[in-house]
Amino acid sequence: QNGLKSFIEVCQHLAIIRDGRLYLDNYSSFENYCRERWALSRPYAYKLMASAKVVEELSADDGVTILPNNPNQVSKLAQLSKEERIAAWKIVLQKSERGKRAISGELVSEVVATFRPERLQLAENDERNTKESAIAHLIAQLLLLMETRTDRPNL
User: What is the pLDDT of residue 138?
Assistant: First the structure.
């Protein structure tokens, strides 16, 4: 329980540093701060902060007696609304027999999918479309560059 409390406190402090831009004294960006000071990627730092927020919300609910103990357990919960997160976590606890069986990220994902299957599918499609758009943009830039180079006479 002390480890979980420390985890939440560290993530809260990370959010305070980000929100207050307190990293600017020694680092040019929050991304550089995370990478150089803590060896964290920016996306992972945001995942940690979101995880801490989810754990805080769950701990405030009287019906939740067991809290997630790692960010992987809560990363999928972060996609849901606060009310859905709490309900989903309670279902996870029921399915794990109140924590007697291991609570895996896979179990959490299965439960979350029952709340928002269309939302999760849309998120996956958006990610795929974004990647495809980025690739198409890069190809267009390369073609333009190649075209520009062929228009130049050899010097």
Answer: 61
Q: Produce one character per residue of 51-89: b if its CB has 16 or more CB atoms within 10 Å, e if not.
A: bbbbbebbeeeeebeebbeebebbbbbbbbeeeebbbbb
- For residue 92, give both structure tokens: 């996870």
| Separation between Cα atoms, residue 15 and residue 52, nearest integer Å | 10
From first CA to last CA, the distance across the chain in angstroms is 71
Cα separation of 82 and 88, whole Å?
10
Q: Is 39 helix (H, G, I), strand (E, B) or coil?
A: coil
CB of 120 closer than 8 Å to CB of 112? yes
More confident residue, 27 or 100: 27
Residue-wise pLDDT tens digits, 138-152: 665 566 566 555 555
